[in-house]
Design brief:
heterodimer, A: mainly beta, seven-stranded antiparallel beta sheet, four-stranded antiparallel beta sheet, rod-shaped, B: mainly alpha, 58% helix
């Protein structure tokens, strides 16, 4: 059949009816003006869903996720997804104090027997036998201790040296990783009561355990040395979030 | 019993020659740094008793020291007495004479208000 060609100029504007057009007419991208496709022209989806590109490059809908979840990217090679926010708490953690004065030998590293737990959440603090904390979870921990150290009687200016030290798994830390707080040897310059604090951030495995040792060198007299009780000395630790 | 006093009496220094430790079951030598042989527990106990005997024997001295007037007050009293002697015409040793002169000049420089 012969094809009849009609020039566009021969057609009056608005005279071509829909019925005269092919049902498979193709519209290419360059025939659509920028910003011409409105949201109304897009197919409806389900409320709460989001559109992203899939593995084949085609846009796909990610259906609405759980209430409270956040959209989480997994990089260029995977589809995003809805993810739960990790709870932000510093557990395991604990705090304990010394309820009464502890008499300690002179010039000796003595384990401090913190016997009263004020707060604990996760991990294990042994407050009756070994006086040690085991976190039970691998992570990075903030550890702290504060000790009141004094001696009874005599001249209150003759403590030669005092220190507090953390022990990990029964041993003092290596020299490059010590957490000492230390008064040096200078006769008659230190007060009879010293308050020493020490803190650090350390990595611990689940079964590692932590203890505190105190030291007073009071060499010039026979008087007794004490770690102050009645909550004047305490020991605490907590895990850093996300560590 | 192992004590730092006993070890010190034997001539050893804490943290330099030895390190003691007590995990709750009594004191023991945790580390021995000295080049000299580590003494026996009996040696340490004997040295501790010796130290304690000498320490107790000096109790009178500690008691006197605690109740004496401060050294400065005692010295001030002696210089006042020496100055009186000086004003009465007593020839004092040159060092003492100079000390009194310097003592008086300081008093003059900072008079009581």
């Amino acid at each position: 059949m012969a094809t009849t060609k009609i020039r566009s100029s021969s057609i009056t504007d608005g005279q071509v009816a829909n019925a005269d057009l092919s049902s498979t007419i193709g519209v290419t991208g360059d025939q659509i003006a920028d910003d011409a496709v409105t949201l109304a022209k897009m197919a409806d989806g389900t409320q709460g869903g989001v559109i992203h590109y899939g593995a084949a490059g085609a846009p796909v809908e990610l259906a609405a996720g759980t209430d409270g979840y956040f959209l989480k990217t997994r990089g260029a090679g995977a589809n995003p997804l809805w993810a739960e926010v990790v709870a932000g708490n510093n557990t395991p953690m604990f705090s304990a104090y010394l309820s009464s004065d502890q008499n300690i030998a002179d010039a000796t590293d003595v384990k401090v027997e913190f016997d009263t737990i004020t707060i604990t959440d996760g991990g294990t603090y042994d407050n009756s036998t070994n006086y040690r904390w085991t976190p039970g979870v691998i992570g990075k921990y903030v550890i702290k201790t504060s000790l009141g150290l004094y001696h009874v009687g005599g001249n209150n200016t003759d403590i030669a040296a005092a220190r507090v030290r953390f022990y990990i798994n029964g041993s003092e830390p290596s020299p490059e990783f010590k957490f000492d707080n230390y008064y040096g040897y200078t006769q008659n310059t230190l007060p009879g009561w010293v308050h020493l604090q020490s803190d650090a951030v350390i990595s611990m495995n689940a079964t590692d355990y932590l203890e505190v040792y105190a030291y007073i060198d009071h060499r010039w007299t026979a008087y007794q040395n004490y770690i102050a009780g009645n909550q004047a000395s305490y020991f605490s630790a907590f895990k850093l979030i996300g560590s | 019993m192992i004590t730092s006093k006993g070890l010190i009496k034997l001539g050893f220094e804490p943290s330099i020659d030895f390190s003691l430790r007590d995990d709750g079951n009594g004191t023991y030598i945790a580390k021995w740094f000295s080049d000299k042989p580590k003494p026996t527990t009996a040696d340490i106990e004997a040295a501790h008793i010796e130290w304690k005997t000498q320490y107790d024997a000096q109790e009178y001295s500690r008691n006197r020291k605690a109740e004496y007037a401060p050294i400065g007050d005692q010295l001030d009293a002696i210089l006042k007495w020496a100055n009186l002697m000086r004003m009465d015409g007593t020839n004092l040793p040159e060092d003492l004479d100079q000390t009194i002169a310097q003592w008086l000049s300081v008093k003059q420089k900072y008079p009581k208000s």
